[in-house]
Design brief:
The protein has ten helices and four strands; from the N terminus they run H-E-H-H-H-H-E-H-H-E-H-E-H-H. The two termini are 38 Å apart. It has one domain. It has a four-stranded mixed beta sheet, with helices on one face. Helix 1 runs parallel beside helix 5 and helix 6 crosses helix 10. The radius of gyration is 21 Å and the shape is globular.
Length: 288
Amino acid sequence: MALNGPNFYEQRRYLQHAIANQKDLKEVILGADFFMFNEFLNNQASFSENRLGKQYLTPEDAINSIFSWDAFSASQETISDSQKNPKDDVNYGRNGFFPVRDIDKKITEWRFEAGLNLYLELHSNYQLSDKYLADFKSFVELCKQKGITLKVFISPAHATDLEAIRTTGQWQTFEQWKRDIVQIVPVWDFSGYNSVTTEPISNHMINYVDNSHYTPKIGDLVLNRVLSYQDETVPKDFGILLTPENVESHIAKIRADREVWANKNPDEVKLVKDIKQEYDAKQALAPK
């Protein structure tokens, strides 16, 4: 399931919606992020209970899709763009769709800084939610009830993303979250400090677009590991299946690996620390 910035209540409701519309759903692959379980993360503005569980567009959605100003503007833009010749270096798929984002690598470093700032804005105030953990458990139980194969993974955020969690004082909460979710279901963990997530920040990166978004190449490696497909293509240190039996040793290893990474990459540690200090200074000056 790939949704934009949801909390876990929204994830659970969209699973129910998918089942209502696809009775023969066989498998779900879920990327579970620490941030989905933040007590203070409200439903997205675009989330609507009214449209879920239905096999048709609601009148409101139909009107907004066809007659709204946004729809009109988007149609104008589409018509205008269709008159232009595509760039020579854009590879369109056989079905006519544009399969990859045209990422400007010259500003990769800027995207990392912007992404880390966004994390601080959204999650500096974090509390692990019992309610969202219960939604996660219900999600897992629903899959079992419906005979749906469920595979859960923790995304391979860049090492600086983990450092941002540390600067907000939530590292122990992050570890506890892993303990909690593996008590419910085994989870593939791609986070930590491995040959993928520790790629140095530069304008020539091949693994990451920014601190929390990885490239299709890395997405393929995640799926290969989770689905036991072409395992020989996946780095040996990338991805471990967490269970209640091995979670503590894994957490201890990540702590040790972080120290090694921090000693080898003081500039990246300083980058995150400086961004956090600037964020705190702005917050101190903001009206109460």
